[in-house]
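Final report, results section. Input specification for complex C-07:
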Amino acid sequence: MSTAPQSPPTPPPTKIASPVPSARELILNGILAENPVFRLALSLCPAVAVTTTVANGLLLGVAVLCVQVLSSVTVSLAHGLIHPRVRIPVYTIIIAVWVSAIDMALQAFTPALYAQVGLYVKLIVAFAIIISRLEIFASRQPLAPSFFDGLGMGLGFLIALVTIGAFRELLGSGAIAGIPLAPGKPLLFFALPAGGFFSIGLLMAFFNWVERRAQGARAKAPSPSGGHGV
Amino acid sequence: MTLHVIQPRPRLTGREIGRIVLSMTMACLVGAAVLGAVYLGTDRYRRAATETSEREAIRDMLGLGADARLIEVRQYLAPALRRVVYLAAPFGGAAGRAREVIFTLDGALAGERSLSAPVAEPRGLLPLSRLFVALRGRELAGFVVEGRAQGYKSVIRFFVAMRPDFEIVDMRVIETQDDPGLGAEVAQPWFREQYVGRTAEEIAHLTVTRDPMPEDWKAALIAFARRAPDGPARHLALLQRERRRPVYAVTGATISSRAVTDGVKNTVDHFRRRWWLLAPHLEGQL
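Structure output:
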């Protein structure tokens, strides 16, 4: 799908670097270059809390993906109506509405999984990654790029949670998605919170190494925004 | 050393404040509309999921096979008329007639009739509680009664399963919003299995202690809850000693432990008294 840069109907308050990247670039940006967990180090606490198994990580990842896309699209469509002085409270309301909607849907359609991770779904309201994408991107861009940015960031978070979940479940309980794989005594440490942070650190290092290798000699310093998000 | 002077923002005009209020109000109204729509769209599926899990819990608690029938009896209060209304119908909208029985507050019969179609939520009546009657053929197989207790933070909803002679066969916490690690721990199998095997008279005099639970009793309760082959025998052996002792509270959840125990006592006591009144009038259902 082509998303040639278009001028939005009302001039946005501030513009970030134009021209707007393509859909493919935006999605890959969320998954790799600015992966919320491995690159921006945002929302690490929930990432550690739910990733003891693949299934939990997958469900929370899908919930975050839906909330991110819906919130980005809503903010992109409504930014002309939001008074700049109260934009953060309004973004919070928008996120809370979509989180509550997803919460109700999960409760109705996946009651068994919801019983396990329902507690964390409500916490998505406070995820730093979602509100930061609304402030940095969706409030300054038209609908299509905001949609693909939300999709990329959501997919990046989902992939990160599933990867960490698989890593920790394999090492911590010797299984992936409940299927026993590794023989011998599992390393319980990786199922505990401290092991979760170590897992994220190891996976971050691994992705950095892969990226350096892929880029070869081309020197490009990664520019993580850093963060202390929830 | 440089001092950064924070520039004051321009003062807000009345017009600006009006726009801010409008912006926030619109966001809240649209949000409320979206949530209302999602609620209406998902409520049917949420109810169906709850009903399925309740049906499974009831069958599992009473150990019922596929041949057993379940009758759901809903109890309501009609505040204006000072009447208690019972609506009995096959559970989960299965085919069959419904029966309505009405009592005064002091337990005198005030009316009864059969209804051709199952009743949805009746208007103007306050729901009080629900109970389920299990039947094998025409023989009574047991009861499951819903009860509520005020826990530390939230209302704890539970099911108590009884044999036809009112001996407790199982107890399960169906819903609690209390904190994991604290109040929510009353859902632990070793805690809730403490009621099992006690008669209605023993339940009526049950108390709660903060003393630590004897290790052998805890191990027997866990084996019983996990349905280990030797579980029932180990449970029965220690039950003779423990049935005259109080329920052992969960550490960190004393308030919820007391609340659930009082809830079970009240639920069983109310049910026994109501059942003698109600049973003769459910002829068409039983």
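The beta strands of chain B are 69-78, 83-90, 98-104, 109-115, 126-136, 139-150, 155-162, 168-175, 208-209, 247-248. The CA atoms of residues 15 and 201 of chain B lie 71 Å apart. This concludes the modelling results for the funded period.
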